[in-house]
Amino acid sequence: MSPPSSPLIVESPASAPLQQAEEIDLSSPRIRPHPSTPRRYSREYEASGSGGRSRFSSPQRSGSGSEGLRWFGLDVVGFFGSGREGRERQRQQRMKRKVGRVVWYRRKVVVAILVLVVIFFVVNWWMLSRLSIPKMGGRRRKALSENSSFIEGDWKKLAKLKKSPKFLHDRMLALAAHALAEGQSKPEPKDLWKEPLDPSETWSPCADKRKWLPNDGKNGYLMVTANGGMNQQRVAVCNAVVVARFLNATLVIPKFMYSSVWRDVSQFGDIYQEEYFINYLTPDIQIVKELPVELQSLDLEAIGSVVTDADIRKEAQLSFFVKNILPLLHQNKVVHLVGFGNRLAFDPMPFELQRLRCRCNFHALQFTPKIQETGALLVQKMRLARHPGPLDRHLVGSYTDAILKKRKVLAKKASKYLSLHLRFEIDMVAHSLCDYGGGEEERKELEAYREIHFPALTQLKKNKNLPPPAALRSEGLCPLSPEEAILMLAALGFKRDTRIFLAGANIYGGQARLDALSNLFPNMVTKEKLLTSSEIEPFQNFSSQLAALDFIACTASDVFAMTDSGSQLSSLVSGFRTYYGGGNMPTIRPNKRRLAGIFMKNSTIEWKIFEQRVRKAVRQTKHVQSRTVSRSVYRNPRCRECMCLKD
């Protein structure tokens, strides 16, 4: 066994006897070497504890005996002091070294974080610079000019747009311009002009089939005054036909209410063919042009026969009319429904009454010859072809052939065209409570419009905390702006030279917004640009008749794109295309909520990623499903009441 380690003798001052010297045990943690001590010294120290001889096993005394113990060549007593004072000084030194290491480590962490932040901003700046519009050399500019006719002036126009506060997607518009210029020579996606089909389902129109006898209308006369624009009025007319049949009442040709928004004095006979309407529905209901003479002098309001839209809840069921309207018919022989629109529920509804609804909308309502002729001219100017489209005859009758004979210079091959309905008039923008980048000026303008035209909404906004514009947009409650609609079309793969018919009047933002669209798609036209002044002059100041022209051009197009699924025009057009299209008339129905999530990343998202996400979002809504309960038959007539399913 190794001999026990000798105690370390610390000499006291020279005047003290040696036997009073303090014994210090090397195994004590107070004298253990610091963790920073080199490993070779640590090994020697540990060896001394097992009896091995080391340089620390015995004290080194000076000749005079006053220097005390020397450790690592240092005078331990002189350096640390003696007793408690020495130990305290030693502890303080260890603490100082520990604090110094912590401070040094923290400085390294801070420096590393700063370096990473700098690298992040540098990389981000580099990526954004790569996404911006490049400065093109001579060859590059020449190639783009030859392949896509995207001249340098268009780049300058887009640069000016970036200074305008009215656009929320300046960066994405610039990226779209670049992508359209480069993609002109690339093929379009295969399914771009096609409607996804389910081979197991083939639907065909059959709402013209009847399985009942006409009613006699002996319960009285039903008068209807429809509100809204042309499309709301069309829905009101067909709902009135169903109510008249259900109550066994005689329908008086509906009248249209004058609106301070639409400012149109057009009546039923100015838009639809009255005689055709009466004759076509005679097997279903009795229709007259006006009340009998003996009833015309009645004060309907005084006798309680006037029922307003405030008296009928939205989408009321048939039981409401039996309980409230039928007794008035029996008592007064006439009832006047004022402001009648979407006041009839879609379900529950008897099979034949639902079919009557579709028969009215898709068969009985034919536009006047004046509208049909001009509508046929619009379609032929867009299509540039000798051959009519599959829906032309259902929309404009025989006027397609007449227009083709008049036009001598026609293309041999039909030119496809896309129609886009921008539901972005000031009334829609004001009612949505959304923000479209116009700042304080836009906010004041829309607020003033709401106070005049939507006083109830203004009062509601004052009394309740309504969701902010950002929340409305994230939930998909804001109509797509013209810029967002064009970005959607560019992302779907439509080429820059695509012929686009732009429906809608008085776009909010004026010509500046339209210029932003035409810079990306120069072949985009409106009916005002497509028709000559003499051709469109008979329709000026008649917004409902102009809307009828939009209806024809949109319905006959090869692809129809809507921006707001709540729009009546979009609903009626998509329904008409579903009913007569045979599965070959695709309609783009954007999911605004999903697109809002994509557009909210417009400051960082790359164009290819944007393309992929938009195409995925639109592809899921492009397929036409069978109508579900409580859904509009005007929007989606693909149900057994309106269409027949072939095996």
TrEMBL record:
UniProt-annotated stretches for the region Disordered: 1-66
A Gene Ontology biological process term: fucose metabolic process
Highest rank taxon of the organism: Eukaryota
One cellular-component annotation, GO: membrane
Designated name of the protein: O-fucosyltransferase family protein
One Pfam family per UniProt: O-FucT
Pathway assignment: Glycan metabolism
Naturally occurring in which organism (per UniProt): Kalanchoe fedtschenkoi
Nucleotide-binding found in the keyword field: no
Segments traversing the membrane: 109-128
Keyword GTP-binding annotated: no
Family recorded in the similarity comment: Belongs to the glycosyltransferase GT106 family.
Biased composition (Low complexity): 53-66
InterPro entries (alphabetical): FucosylTrfase_pln (IPR024709), GDP-Fuc_O-FucTrfase (IPR019378), GT106_glycosyltransferase (IPR052272)
Membrane topology according to the record: Single-pass membrane protein
Subcellular location: Membrane
Entry keyword set: Carbohydrate metabolism, Fucose metabolism, Glycoprotein, Glycosyltransferase, Membrane, Transferase, Transmembrane, Transmembrane helix
GO MF: glycosyltransferase activity
